[in-house]
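--- STAGE predict ---
source: upstream dedup step, 1 unique chain passed
mode: sequence only
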Amino acid sequence: MKKFLKKSVAFMACGIILASVLTGCKASSKTVVMGTNAAFPPFEYYDGDKITGFDVEIAQQVAKELGVELKIEDIAFQGLITSLESQKVDFVAAGMSINEDRKKSVDFSDSYYEASQVIIVPKDNEAIKGEEDLKGKNIGVQIGTTGADVAHGIENAKVVEFNTGFAAIMDMQNGKIDAVVLDSEPAKNFAKANDKIKVLDKSLTTEQYAIAVKKGNEKVLKAVNKALKELKDSGEYDKLFEKYFK
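--- STAGE serialize ---
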């Protein structure tokens, strides 16, 4: 009787584990998870309690390509690649620039946007006109970004890192830092909404945005590249570009 009970318990335990695994597989097969940092307009931002933006609409096309629903996880930018490696998310669409360091950790899709890093200063600041004028200054950046990399390379600059570009701009307005280095489109969006700041004309870099997937995840990478190609071939990409950048 004891042996029978042990076998029955063991069988039931196996059944529960198997059911859990199957349920998990079934749930994951219905959604694809996009990791992003939703403080980067117009690529990703909150409209009320909903995350929207240029990257989100591209991600919706990726989900359509995979035949599943899109789920979005809002994560601090510096944690996005870790979330991808730990499979918390299936891909990252977050205005992420391709660079050699990131290539060591992720696979990138085809490029979908050419970006640059720019300097933001208070509207009445006439002393900072370009990169040379940032030497020895206090510069705000978003942690983990290529803008942070650029700022760290400026002679004698003190680089102050923030979780978002918006937070850096607020500290600049409060006189705690001299300037902010940020991606061009979010910088323009912040300047449109804030008449106390301005974006300098000269760019510091030219770089390409792409969608990141876990190393070796060919299924998602192919779906992303196919979705990007179809958006461009159909003219829908141009419509999205017009919607968010014109």
